[in-house]
């Protein structure tokens, strides 16, 4: 009997349990998934009002009749076992400091004191941060970028200090074409080259817990900020740089023009000096401060000068004494002619004169080659008499511009004249007792050599 | 012969008393070993996170701006289990001059953290009724209690460094 009773009891119990799980309601109708109608979601906001936290719950189905429904939270509370939610329209919320923030809590949905549905959750895992605010965009011309800054209230809180932010921006005309950037700080830089020029953009930001200890959902979007990108200047240069470029261009152009204009006259002679013209060089060498000096190689210009025929080099003393005794006299016309012809021809008269090179050296910076034609520019002193040869009354050595003639040395080789040569030129007096400088005996080639040497000495 | 019998009775009695006494002490020590929880199997990483995010804020709020270094805190723990043992003892066991730490926020959080992350830890049963009565009397945090909390802060810092 005992065993039989026990068996009947167990069967009865099983029947009751099975009938209850199948959802068989008292009204006879099948109401499967009755709990799903009262499914709900919650989120928490910590330190939303000073030190008080906020927990908000709502049914997923907005059509649920929540007239007599209540929400209750139990567990993970400070000094209390359970707390009851307040109701505002279709939302249930509770604002309290008594959340322990460690461990799980249970939220019960009650109807008339009876528990309809429950859900276990952890308050630190359903945190919804507050929306960021004060978003600003500043254009930095020097860096060609946009600095985006925003603020969040969580930087001043004790809990949920570390957040991840998401910045979204788009061009206003491009709908649903949002660009997203994730960052952990409250500053972002957007490069100008990555944005369209002269376009209007809008930008917004939201936050989520950093998932280190506190986890949860995205906050609401911040208020949208609008900004316009500047136009592209299209290669427009900086005014200062432009001015410098123009000035440099014109300076270079001016230098090129001047170089072309002055090339032949000024620049080329310096860069590529031409070989000196001997005639002109000698004329320059024979230039003297006196303006009335008439330098010429024309024999006719020496008509007024005493021309002594140079025969050879004798002792200095003899020449000096001779020169002291000699007096200036005019040259005979025939002698002049001969001299002039002699300058052109190779023959020399036999008459010759001696002139001490010392005297020449005293008056001139170089010595004269014996028996050859030498052009002496420095022989002429201001007191010399080349244009005024006929007027000279001086004693002493005659200083001649122009030719110094040597007898019969046209075919002989002569050494290069040296300023320190002690040799003298001999002068043979003519029949009239006047020394005559005979015509040139050197060849044109020897004269050319002499002149080049003379120029070298100079 | 009578005195010899008396002399033998006295040492025997003494030995008997001492043996009973030492036996009880031994038994009590065994019981203590059994009842003291071993924190070796706890999840120290999760306990450390709960300390850094929640318990630390409550400890700082209790000290109310007074730095723990102002007290001479010659306290030290060797390893994480030793740190948790000492933290539990100071937090939940009253001492002379400070008997109400167990109901503070940081104590409740410590109890919750140890209960969740230490398998087999039953936790301390904090009597809320008694807590309400004591709140009526409004025991103010004494200097002795702040000294105890300063010890706790040092132990928790040591624990977070070595865990």
From TrEMBL, chain A:
<keyword id="KW-0675">Receptor</keyword>
<dbReference type="GO" id="GO:0004896">
    <property type="term" value="F:cytokine receptor activity"/>
</dbReference>
<keyword id="KW-1133">Transmembrane helix</keyword>
<keyword id="KW-1015">Disulfide bond</keyword>
<dbReference type="InterPro" id="IPR013783">
    <property type="entry name" value="Ig-like_fold"/>
</dbReference>
<keyword id="KW-0812">Transmembrane</keyword>
<dbReference type="GO" id="GO:0046427">
    <property type="term" value="P:positive regulation of receptor signaling pathway via JAK-STAT"/>
</dbReference>
<keyword id="KW-0832">Ubl conjugation</keyword>
<keyword id="KW-0732">Signal</keyword>
<dbReference type="InterPro" id="IPR036116">
    <property type="entry name" value="FN3_sf"/>
</dbReference>
<comment type="similarity">
    <text>Belongs to the type I cytokine receptor family. Type 4 subfamily.</text>
</comment>
<feature type="signal peptide">
    <location>
        <begin position="1"/>
        <end position="20"/>
    </location>
</feature>
<feature type="transmembrane region" description="Helical">
    <location>
        <begin position="240"/>
        <end position="263"/>
    </location>
</feature>
<keyword id="KW-0472">Membrane</keyword>
<dbReference type="GO" id="GO:0009897">
    <property type="term" value="C:external side of plasma membrane"/>
</dbReference>
<feature type="domain" description="Fibronectin type-III">
    <location>
        <begin position="131"/>
        <end position="232"/>
    </location>
</feature>
<dbReference type="InterPro" id="IPR003531">
    <property type="entry name" value="Hempt_rcpt_S_F1_CS"/>
</dbReference>
<feature type="region of interest" description="Disordered">
    <location>
        <begin position="321"/>
        <end position="351"/>
    </location>
</feature>
<keyword id="KW-0597">Phosphoprotein</keyword>
<comment type="function">
    <text>Receptor for interleukin-7. Also acts as a receptor for thymic stromal lymphopoietin (TSLP).</text>
</comment>
<protein>
    <recommendedName>
        <fullName>Interleukin-7 receptor subunit alpha</fullName>
    </recommendedName>
</protein>
<dbReference type="InterPro" id="IPR040997">
    <property type="entry name" value="FN3_7"/>
</dbReference>
Automatic annotation (TrEMBL), chain B:
<keyword id="KW-1133">Transmembrane helix</keyword>
<dbReference type="GO" id="GO:0032754">
    <property type="term" value="P:positive regulation of interleukin-5 production"/>
</dbReference>
<dbReference type="GO" id="GO:0032755">
    <property type="term" value="P:positive regulation of interleukin-6 production"/>
</dbReference>
<dbReference type="InterPro" id="IPR029189">
    <property type="entry name" value="TSLP"/>
</dbReference>
<dbReference type="GO" id="GO:0032722">
    <property type="term" value="P:positive regulation of chemokine production"/>
</dbReference>
<dbReference type="GO" id="GO:0001961">
    <property type="term" value="P:positive regulation of cytokine-mediated signaling pathway"/>
</dbReference>
<dbReference type="GO" id="GO:0005139">
    <property type="term" value="F:interleukin-7 receptor binding"/>
</dbReference>
<dbReference type="Pfam" id="PF15216">
    <property type="entry name" value="TSLP"/>
</dbReference>
<dbReference type="InterPro" id="IPR038329">
    <property type="entry name" value="TSLP_sf"/>
</dbReference>
<dbReference type="GO" id="GO:0032736">
    <property type="term" value="P:positive regulation of interleukin-13 production"/>
</dbReference>
<protein>
    <submittedName>
        <fullName>Thymic stromal lymphopoietin</fullName>
    </submittedName>
</protein>
<dbReference type="GO" id="GO:0061844">
    <property type="term" value="P:antimicrobial humoral immune response mediated by antimicrobial peptide"/>
</dbReference>
<dbReference type="GO" id="GO:0005125">
    <property type="term" value="F:cytokine activity"/>
</dbReference>
<dbReference type="GO" id="GO:0032733">
    <property type="term" value="P:positive regulation of interleukin-10 production"/>
</dbReference>
<dbReference type="GO" id="GO:0005576">
    <property type="term" value="C:extracellular region"/>
</dbReference>
<dbReference type="GO" id="GO:0050729">
    <property type="term" value="P:positive regulation of inflammatory response"/>
</dbReference>
<keyword id="KW-0812">Transmembrane</keyword>
<keyword id="KW-0472">Membrane</keyword>
<feature type="transmembrane region" description="Helical">
    <location>
        <begin position="20"/>
        <end position="40"/>
    </location>
</feature>
């Amino acid at each position: 009997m005992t065993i039989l009773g026990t068996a009947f009891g167990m069967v009865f119990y099983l029947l009751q349990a099975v009938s209850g799980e199948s959802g068989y309601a008292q009204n006879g109708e099948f109401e499967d998934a009755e709990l799903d109608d009262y499914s709900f979601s919650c989120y928490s906001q910590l330190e939303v009002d000073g030190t008080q936290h906020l927990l908000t719950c709502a049914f997923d189905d907005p059509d649920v009749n929540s007239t007599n429904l209540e929400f209750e939270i139990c567990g993970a509370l400070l000094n209390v076992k359970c707390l009851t939610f307040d109701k505002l329209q279709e939302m249930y919320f509770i604002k309290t400091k008594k959340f322990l923030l460690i461990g799980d809590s249970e939220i019960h949905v009650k109807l008339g004191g009876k528990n309809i549905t429950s859900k276990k959750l952890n308050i630190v895992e359903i945190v919804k941060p507050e929306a960021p605010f004060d978003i600003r965009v500043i254009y930095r011309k020097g860096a060609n970028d946009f600095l985006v800054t925003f603020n969040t209230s969580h930087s001043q809180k004790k809990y949920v200090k570390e957040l991840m932010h998401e910045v979204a921006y788009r061009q206003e005309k491009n709908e649903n074409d949002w660009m997203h950037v994730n960052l952990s700080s409250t500053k972002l830089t957007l490069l100008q080259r990555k944005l369209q020029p002269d376009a209007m953009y809008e930008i917004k930001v939201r936050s989520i817990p950093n998932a280190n200890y506190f986890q949860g959902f995205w906050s609401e979007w911040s208020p949208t900020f609008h900004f316009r990108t500047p136009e592209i200047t299209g290669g427009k240069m900086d005014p200062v740089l432009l001015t410098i470029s123009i000035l440099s261009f014109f300076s270079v152009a001016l230098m090129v023009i001047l170089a072309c204009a002055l090339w032949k006259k000024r620049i080329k002679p310096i860069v590529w000096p031409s070989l000196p013209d001997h005639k002109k060089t000698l004329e320059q060498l024979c230039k003297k401060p006196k303006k009335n000096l008439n330098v010429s190689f024309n024999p006719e210009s020496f008509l007024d000068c005493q021309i002594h025929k140079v025969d050879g080099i004798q002792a200095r003393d003899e020449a000096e004494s001779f020169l002291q005794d000699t007096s200036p006299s005019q040259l005979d016309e025939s002698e002049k002619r001969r001299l002039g012809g002699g300058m052109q021809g190779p023959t020399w008269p036999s008459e010759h004169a001696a002139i001490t090179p010392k005297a020449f050296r005293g008056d001139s910076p170089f010595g004269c080659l014996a028996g050859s034609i030498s052009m002496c520019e420095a022989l002429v002193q201001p007191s010399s008499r080349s244009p005024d040869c006929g007027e000279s009354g001086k004693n002493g050595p005659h200083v001649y511009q122009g030719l110094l003639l040597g007898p019969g040395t046209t075919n002989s080789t002569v050494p290069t004249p040296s300023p320190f040569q002690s040799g003298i030129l001999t002068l043979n007096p003519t029949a009239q007792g006047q020394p005559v400088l005979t015509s040139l005996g050197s060849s044109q080639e020897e004269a050319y050599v002499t002149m080049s040497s003379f120029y070298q000495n100079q | 012969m009578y005195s010899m019998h008396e002399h033998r009775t006295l040492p025997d009695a003494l030995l008997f008393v001492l043996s009973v006494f030492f036996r009880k002490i031994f038994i009590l020590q065994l019981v203590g070993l059994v009842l003291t929880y071993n924190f070796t199997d706890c999840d120290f990483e999760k306990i450390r996170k709960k300390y850094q995010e929640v318990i630390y804020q409550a400890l700082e709020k209790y000290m109310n701006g007074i730095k723990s270094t102002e007290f001479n805190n010659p306290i030290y723990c060797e390893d994480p289990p030793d740190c948790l043992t000492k933290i539990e003892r100071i937090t939940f066991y009253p001492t002379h001059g400070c008997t109400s730490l167990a109901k503070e926020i940081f104590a409740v959080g410590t109890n919750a953290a140890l209960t969740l992350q230490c398998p087999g830890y039953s936790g301390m049963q904090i009597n809320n009724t008694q807590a309400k009565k004591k709140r009526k009397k409004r025991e103010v945090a004494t200097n002795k209690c702040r000294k105890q909390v300063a010890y706790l802060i040092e132990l928790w810092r040591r624990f977070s460094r070595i865990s």
